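Re: [help] complex structure
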Amino acid sequence: MGIIVNLDVEMAKNKMSLKELAERIDISVTNLSLLKTGKVKGIRFDTLLAICRELNCKPGDILDITPDDE
Amino acid sequence: MKIKNKALLFCIKIGLDVVWYTHLVASVFMLLLFVKYAYSGSWPMFSMPLRLAIIQEGYSPAIFTNGLTNVGSDVFSMHPANPLIMAIYQNPVIKISLIMRTAIRSVLILAVIYNLRKVFGTIYRNEPFQYKNITRLKMTALYIALPILLNVVYSGVYQLVYNMLKKDNYLRAYNYGYKFKVSWLSWQSTIGYLEVAAIVYIMAEILNYGLELKRENEEFV
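Output below.
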């Protein structure tokens, strides 16, 4: 089990590029890219809130749990 | 994070630079001077390695002793006004050991200043959180602590030398009313070195902890 980030899906729904979203929520493109690919240890609440506000979604739409391998 | 007092930092930076270059030039100059004096026959009283303390006052202009070698005699001169006996060493063993000691200390001081300059440079450029700085601080602590080892070794060597010369010296001096004691180490300076080295090492460990926190923090977006 693990956390997966569905940021790319929500971005596609909103037709928003990575650069545009990064500018809107005021974080670097590099960090947002790391978040999108799931290469970070965690996400701060204020970052999550900003992303949800810009993409008109809920935290559950961005974050999900991968099912067990079994 | 922006450093607020830039002017003070600039002053410290300039101060460290001045100390570094001055010490660099002075070290080379003093070493050359030391070697010159050591072999010119007029050995100045730069050091009193035997640390002889006069307990009873008296007066004798000088005591001549046989050196470790047949090259020359060591001269110990005593004055009631001065609690320490001045020693004029003529034998090459002591001369070379003193030059070595001075050279090693000088190099250690240079190494400490060099590391401090490097660490301070990173602070000045607003990038002090580097693993290199931890190594630099730990090395600085080591360089500060090394003179303790040097003191121990040299105290042992001088104790041996003193034991060889003591009998003759003591008998002569005793006739003039002197008594001697030898202190192996200057404990005050030893403790001082230890304290400073410990403080620097603790700072390195704190920086290490801070750096780990920063690395962990950077993994969150």
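The longest strand of chain A covers residues 2-5.
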